[in-house]
Amino acid sequence: MSRIVVIGATGHVGSYLIPRLVEAGHNVVAVSRGIRDPYRTDAAWQHVERVALDRDAGDADGSFAPAIAGLGADIVVDMMCFTEDSAAQLVEALRGRVDLLVSCGTIWVHGTAVAVPTTETDARRPFGEYGVGKAAIEKLLLAES
Ligand SMILES: NC(=O)c1ccc[n+]([C@@H]2O[C@H](COP(=O)([O-])OP(=O)(O)OC[C@H]3O[C@@H](n4cnc5c(N)ncnc54)[C@H](OP(=O)(O)O)[C@@H]3O)[C@@H](O)[C@H]2O)c1
What we know:
By secondary structure, this protein is of the alpha/beta class. The protein is built from five helices and five strands. Strands 3-2-1-4-5 form a five-stranded parallel beta sheet, with helices on one face. Helix 4 (84-94) links the parallel strand 4 and strand 5 (100-103). Helix 4 (84-94) runs parallel beside helix 5. The longest helix has 17 residues, at 128-144. It is globular. NADP nicotinamide-adenine-dinucleotide phosphate is lined by residues 8-14, 32-36, 53-56, 79-80, 104, 106.
């Protein structure tokens, strides 16, 4: 059993991920602002510790990453990272304190697909704030790995 902190836990992905982690026997901490409820009701949520934090505000004043580090996770799953600076703050705060940091990326790091299926080894030509930001996060995390 691991203590797993999921940042952005009640969205498209987290709504389904959290119950699966609980059912797998993990101690799960769900971080979000507390504005959205999970898409599906599931009894597993009764066993989840909910923590209200705002990533944007906390990144701006430097409090978010230390707050995540203070949750004492073995594993952090980051579903809500969109800038290199945000990723770097989290990496620094978690360095040496967790076994694993999982960051959710996107196929948009590749830009316009030139082959289907696009694989991880294909060229990265991201465009737009979202794709460029996710590609920068990926580069940072791969260099740290
Ligand atoms: N959905 C897709 O089709 C798709 C495709 C490719 C990649 N991805 C990637 O998957 C990841 C997760 O996406 P998703 O679709 O699951 O997201 P989502 O449905 O937008 O869910 C966002 C989650 O983060 C929380 N949140 C939003 N703003 C926050 C903030 N400032 N501070 C703390 N929590 C915040 C939301 O709850 P509150 O509003 O209550 O805070 C919610 O739990 C992203 O990194 C995205 O790039 C998604």
